[in-house]
Every structure is written in structure tokens, then in C-alpha cells.
Amino acid sequence: MRLAHPLLAAPLLALTLPAPALANDSEAEWAVGGLVLKQNDAISMDAEELYISEAEVRVDYTYTNQSEKDLELTISFPLPPMPEKGLYYDYYSALPDWDQLKFRTTVDGEEVDWTASDRALIDGKDVTAKVEAEGLPVLWYGPADLPQTLGKLPTDQLARLERAGLIKRDTSYGTDWLPAWQVQRHIVRTQTFPARKAVHVSHRYKPINGGSVGGMLYPHARTEFPEGLADYRTRWCVDDSFLAGFDRRDAAMKAKAPSGEVYSSETWIGYILSTGANWRGPIKDFRLVVDKGSPDNLVSFCMDGVKKVSDTRFEVRKQDFEPKGDLNVLLVQWWRMED
Prior knowledge:
The chain has about 350 residues and is of the alpha+beta class. The strands form 4 sheets. An 8-stranded mixed sheet has the order 8-7-14-5-4-17-20-19, with no helix packed on it. It has a 6-stranded antiparallel sheet with strand order 3-2-6-13-9-10. Strands 1, 15, 16, 18 and 21 form a 5-stranded mixed sheet that branches. It folds into 2 domains: about 20-125 and about 180-339, Immunoglobulin-like (Sandwich); about 130-180, no CATH class. About 15% of the residues lie in helices and about 40% in strands.
């Protein structure tokens, strides 16, 4: 089932940013190649309740250790690799600051400590050790602004880094070199699962959302950039009924504001569901609630069995759920520019 809903806004064409996401918990281990997510056959995920909105993400788990002994595990909550491939250098300064997430974890109601680990990835391979051996910052965008530093390095050093596959040429946006790796942050904790007992784990955080002003939903953009519309159909399951709903809502919003200009904008929220398959068996009881924030907004995401439960909330319930992919949520909102 495809759903639609509106959300953010601002003038003219799209400023596109990647949509940061977080993930389901997974057991992890520190291996030679970095932090590795692994399958656990002793602990089941009995329930997951996930709430997603523009302002907050909440996820509550119930785990049971099915074995006869206490298990102390390293647990990772991975964030998506950043920046997304194909992102222009001009946008790197606008990439999210993960420290703004205000991430909080409780186990059986008690807040627990966690650590952040940033890893360098090239085509999914952990190259953190190689990056650090060169004295380069793993988190290379933002304040570090490594592309500007690279331009000041000696030619022979740049050639060596290029041969090692750590940098690549890019002259499109005011810099000659760009790092070749993505950065993935893991939120890591150590947790004990008592034998034959249930444990309740909760995460709360303020998502740092991607989005656009304008976007691909306007009729002229759909015609001029069919490849962009194709991406919307794949990533957010935008279908013809959603587009028709967008057109109706856009016309209605403009009719309400004859004295000012009205624009749509988008918010993109991602959540990595697939790591939920790393536990013993399927997720026995899964519930998702997506809150679009305002009855005037539109929402679209790829999930079957969607039920509207209020003016702003949509619910999915599944038994013995085995997530195969990840969740991407598109929110659309209208914004008015006064004369």
C-alpha cells in the first residue's frame, strides 16, 4: 500500500541533502577489518515498537536470552554511511552533525552509557586503519574540511594516497581532490542478557533529516527529470495516486493564500530495519507508527498493511516479521511566503 502526506517548505528549486537514518540494534564485534555486525542465535527479538516523526524517533525492543547462561555482548546501533554517493562538494558543509542527535538509551528503564565509533568505508570495506595510518581524519567533512587540506599536500603524497585508493580527483566544485571513503558512525554499548530472561531496550533521538525545497513532485519537474521521479517511486513508493493527491493539495493550498506565494518542501527520514534480522528468528511482534505531523501534510513510504489510525498517524503491524530492506519516509509540507 502507498501512502501520501505533506510536510516542509521554502522557495524555488531543491537543495538536496542525504536523509540520515539510524538502525535496529545488532550484535557486533571488533575484528581485524573494523566493527562487524554479526548474527546472534541465542537472543530473540520478541517485540519492536517503532515511532517515526520529523521531531522524534522512538524504538522499544523486548529481547529474550533463550540460552542457559548470561551473555555479555557488544551491541552496535549503526548510522548510515555518509556522504551519499554522488553528492556535490558544495553540500558537504550541510551534512548532519551526529552529535546533535541527542541519542538516549535505556535498558529496563535505566539509562546506559554508549560510545561513538566512526569508521571509514570504501565500497563497504572498512579502511579505518589505512586512513588513520596516513594521519587523516576519518570524519573528513564539516569542521575538518579535508578536501581543502588535501589541496595543500605535496604532489608525491597526493599520488601515493591516490594509488592507495584513499582520495580521488574532483575538480567540479572548487577542489581538486576528495576523500574516497564514506563515514559510518556506530553507537556502541556493552549489554548483559540474563539467561532465560526478557530485557527491555529503548532508544530515543531527534532525527537530523534530509530534505529539499521544491523537489521532484511538481508536474514540470516530473516531466523534465523522469529519472528523479523514478527514484521517488523506488525509494518512497510514490505512485500515481500520491502524485494526484499532491496536485490537489498544492492547488488547495495556493487557493487559500491568494496574497502570497506557496511552496512545497520535503523531509526525508530513513531507518535501517534490516539489522533486525540479525537476531534469533523473526521479530515476533512488530509495530510501526509514522506520524506526519499535521493533517495538511502528505506522507509516503514503502510498507504493506498500512492503516490510518488518526488524522496524522499511520500504523503497520506484523507478526514474525523478517525485515529484508530498510525504511525511507517522505514527508511533504506547504509553506507560504507573504508579500
